[in-house]
User: Fold these one by one.
Assistant:
Number 1:
Amino acid sequence: LVSSLCSIPLASLPPLEWPMPNHTEHYELHIDVQPKPHHRAHYETEGSRGAVKAPTGGHPVVQLHGYKGKEPLGLQIFIGTADERILKPHAFYQVHRITGKTVTTTSLEKIVNGTKVLEIPLEPKNNMKAIIDCAGILKLRNADIELRKGETDIGRKNTRVRLVFRVHIPQPGGQHISLQAASHPIECSQRSAHELPLVEKQDMDGCSVLGGQQMILTGQNFSSDSRVIFMEKTQDGQQIWEMEATVDKDKSQPNLLFVEVPSYRELSVCHSVKVHFYVINGKRKRSQPQHFTFTPLSVPSIKTEPQ
Amino acid sequence: EDEFELYRHTDIRPPFTYATLIRQAIMTASERQLTLNEIYNWFTSTFAYFRRNAATWKNAVRHNLSLHKCFVRVENVKGAVWTVDEMEFQRRRSQKLTGSPTTMKPVPSSRAV
DNA sequence: TTAGGAAAATTTGTTTCATAG
DNA sequence: CGCTATGAAACAAATTTTCCT
């Protein structure tokens, strides 16, 4: 029934740390429904904390577009990192197969290679769409992982992951086309999920170097002492600019922040500048850096700015 | 770089102060910054001596990090990392050299206490 | 099994005291 | 004597893990 999914020999598949496109000219692996931004992972000393869910209460949904074949394919799932580096299996987390009673409608199997991988069917009769309701997240102890020779990552404050999906589509020549899609980041720590500010939407992605405009941030865990800091870094990571934006504390709510964009450090730049900003509560609880672009005052001749 | 090769497998205490070693660890890192844990790892992987009595030397490492001004703690997206204020580090070193007893003692007048 | 909350345990940082050189 | 490097420890704050309903 399910065993046929394993038709592709494991050894011939590309390593999990290999970068991979989410689409080719003919196919696309797409995440129709993203998982919730928070999912408390469980430790081996605890009972399961269930499957990752979608914001709506349902579950994440993944679909493969462009597949014309009649045979079902296997959709692989594993837990990946969510930092600025390229995606790789997360050393401190593993997927946990939820053996749901009536809840789990999908079948699955487990394989390893240092990291656990779930595989569920992607069937033509379901339009190659799969509902991911069988993937939970297990947290491994930092100390246990850090002592492994060869592991250089640090577990502390490294609690964000992404669900990673892969499909290997058989081709005429006997080879495969492999696609991979990673979900939005998922915060797995109880504490971080409860205290770290999270920016989910921003009013605008940029404005002129003069700033002064109001930007509305939508998100979670905003508080009265939330501050917003704009900053700029060079390629080698050296921070060269930092400026606190003023926040309208009166209007702000737990999930809404009204920010006045500060002016850029240099008003006479000729090209737009990409910077970042983040929300920070207290001394250490800061959100992930968000993107923002400052555009020059006078654009040489390209196009005219509205207003 | 591999000037510590001798100590990597021989269990003898490296003849350097903690401050010197910590700086070495940090400056060896690609981005000139390390988390406390990474500094610990550098010690254990570089010196056989520090693969024993962890509680003791780890305490000393933390002690040195916060005691010396040349070690600066910097927060970033993830936890915090330690960096070296090279200017400050060199300052301590030069004081040790120029401050040699015989050269700058202004002839203290002998006096009973 | 799944959820929430939070006590218990660890880590990471700061400081102070004492002592050998 | 004054000063530096080490050790041992008390404490506080931040974070992780284990426990309990």
Note: Residues 40, 42, 47-50, 98-101, 103, 142-143, 156, 190 of chain A lie near DNA strand C (CB under 10 Å from a C1').
Number 2:
Amino acid sequence: MAQQYTRKMIREVFVEMLNEKPFDKITIKNIVTKCEINRKTFYYYYENLYSIIHEIFESEIENVIIKYNETHSWEECFIFAARTSIKNKRAIYHIFNSVHREELERYLYSIAGNVMFRYVEDINREIKASEEDAKIIARFYQSALTNMVLHWIADGMKDEPEKIIKRIGLLFDGNIALSLKRSKEI
Amino acid sequence: MAQQYTRKMIREVFVEMLNEKPFDKITIKNIVTKCEINRKTFYYYYENLYSIIHEIFESEIENVIIKYNETHSWEECFIFAARTSIKNKRAIYHIFNSVHREELERYLYSIAGNVMFRYVEDINREIKASEEDAKIIARFYQSALTNMVLHWIADGMKDEPEKIIKRIGLLFDGNIALSLKRSKEI
DNA sequence: AAGGCAGTGTCCGGTTTTCGGACACTGCCT
DNA sequence: AGGCAGTGTCCGAAAACCGGACACTGCCTT
């Protein structure tokens, strides 16, 4: 554990700052000063500020995958991810309103993809449509889900995750299975 | 800061364990496993378990001295030390009931000494008895105070520190000044 | 517009901190 | 009497951290 302690500290201090001020007001100097480490140590772990954001996204994607493998429930994945986001509401707001909105979108798309592909796969285990069809269907819902979340963020993350889940549930329930069955008939 | 992180962690985990189980049930292996560090790293900082206790005592003595230099009040020093002790009640209980009672006594004696010598010195600044006399008087109260605290610990640290302070205060107030004055007359 | 200033990214290197594996030794357990 | 867990110590190696310097960039000042 002690190994990656400094790396973790840098990440945490960065997110902390991102919760206070926009991305372009944060400097590497700021971070290393607050962490009481040498500036070189920062470069030992990260190339630049951008790569911290990248790492955070990567690890969050991993977390969601782990969550799905544990629960096999997209609902729980969503709540889990949403709760994490709400915790760092302002940080996400600052990423959303900076040059990194693109990265955020890619990240959401990736998360949604991971959940949806696994979810459709789970359902398809019984229906046994072709893998190709399953992928197409998953991708269809992936963008829909991503877009929904993006709107939720743009709207200030006001709605409770559970509320959105219900709404999405109405769009999912039965529909995915139905789509899979239909694609078998074609 | 990051430098001494591991050392601090070892200390904290040790105290944590000492709050759970007696000293002789704690092994170095236990600690390094819980800290997720290499056993060698332990030896990098400490010789053995005993030296952690020693270090803790040393640093606590320092803290009390700092406290006295800030406040010039033995009462506040006492409350400060007692509160720290109560926080780790069971740890102290386990030290008290192990081969390290002796070390604990020496530590208390040292703390009491530091406080009393400074306190008597402060009072003597006005009275101006000889340094020699001041030391004798301080040493007299030092053992008395130590013994009182030892009994407090043996009794399970039940009494509130403030209560004991009042009791000690009755023995101190005026008496020290009086003793100093008398020793001048001899 | 020129100079000052803060932050960046990168170079050199050096020191501190952590690790892995091995050994003999002790005490305990059964 | 033998097995087993923990200890203290040896070796060397690797990872983590640091200090100072450099050129470069963008911003702010006056």
Note: The CA atoms of residues 64 and 89 of chain B lie 18 Å apart.
